[in-house]
Write a structure and sequence with these properties.
This protein is α+β, with helices and mostly antiparallel strands. It has five helices and 15 strands. The protein has a six-stranded antiparallel barrel.
Amino acid sequence: MPVNKPEDRSGSCGEFTFRAVGVIKSCAKYHYEAPRQSVYAASGAFLLWNDPIYQLAAEDLQGFDRIWLVWVFNLNKHESWHPKVRVPVPAERDKYSVFATRSPYRPNPIGISAVELMEIRPEGLLLGPCDLLDGTAVLDVKPYIPEVDAFPDSKAGWRDRIDQRKYHILWQASAREQADFIRERGALDLMNFARVQLTYRPLDDSRKRLDFIARQNIWVLHCRTWKLFFEISEADQQISILKIAGNYSAGELEPNAPDKYGDKALHREFISIFGPENPAV
């Protein structure tokens, strides 16, 4: 049987070439939908093998609750990296050494994720909650072994100094209905997006597109061509999602208007059901 081997093209410890064993199939398609770790994900994924030989390579994973995925940040738009990077939830400063973070921009764009193994199928692996985007290339699969892979009492450097305040996100029934409508038609999962963006440091506008409607004390979180209206209670550490609306104007939704993102038909249907945006929320 053919076996892929890393190719050392330099004659020493230099450059290597690897082939992906499979690709991730997931409902998360954009970087801002990806949770920061698999445990924060709202939905599962599927690892589709690139070659039938990997069916044999995975047979004895039966009985393992979790596996490690070794994968590539092949969907990154930028290939450059910096020795100091911004982190999503900082401690006393914004930037830390890249090797002390899980930043996607690294000297070698390789990631690791511990995910639940739900089912072994001939064509691939059904996974539980997963932080990988649709189309992510997977290089390797390894079993998660609790006695050697888990060290819950270990110190975690600067992460031990993070402000751990976590905001609870509530959805009004009408807003949840709107989010379900959008997701069920194959568009963005705005509930997961809100969870990723608002659970920690929800008003940090250096990491997200935010507007504030002062006269109503309401915040607006933008996501591609949609916007989410929410209220925040600092005392209760609670966020209430009030409604969803589109970012297109009436003129931009005219039948012959350009459709850069290919979603204007969905916006028109959304308005036909839920009505145009109500400034009074």
